[in-house]
Amino acid sequence: MAGEQKAKAKMEQAKGKVKEAVGRTTDDEGLAAEGQAKQSKGDLRQAKEKAKDAFRH
């Protein structure tokens, strides 16, 4: 389960980076902001999983 969540976090970060890049390229501030939000969500998920790993060991 933890591996699945880590992969999901990485996927969210990658999708967010792509959305942000597309938004900036097309001057779509809404899309760029959405991409940044998705990256942040992935970052938070990754931090949560790292914290859970720290308590397991």
Description:
This protein is mainly alpha-helical and 57 residues long. Helix content is 91%, strand content 0%. The protein has two helices and no strands. The chain has helices at residues 2-25, 29-56. Helix 1 (2-25) runs antiparallel to helix 2. It is elongated and about 45 Å long. It starts with a helix and ends with a helix.
Name the descriptors:
single chain; 57 residues; mainly alpha
List the helices and strands and how they pair.
Layout: H1 2-25, H2 29-56
| Unreliably modeled segments | none
**Considering DSSP H and I runs of 4 or more, what fraction of the residues is helical?**
over 70%
N-to-C order of helices and strands:
HH
Biggest sheet details: none
- Please report the distance between the alpha carbons of the first and last residues: 16 Å
Query: Percent of residues in beta strands?
Result: under 5%
Rounded average pLDDT: 92
The Rg value, from CA coordinates, equals 13 Å
- Principal-axis shape: elongated
Tell how many strands the DSSP assignment holds: 0
The chain-level structural class is mainly alpha
Give a concise summary.
The protein is mainly alpha-helical and 57 residues long. The chain has helices at 2-25, 29-56.
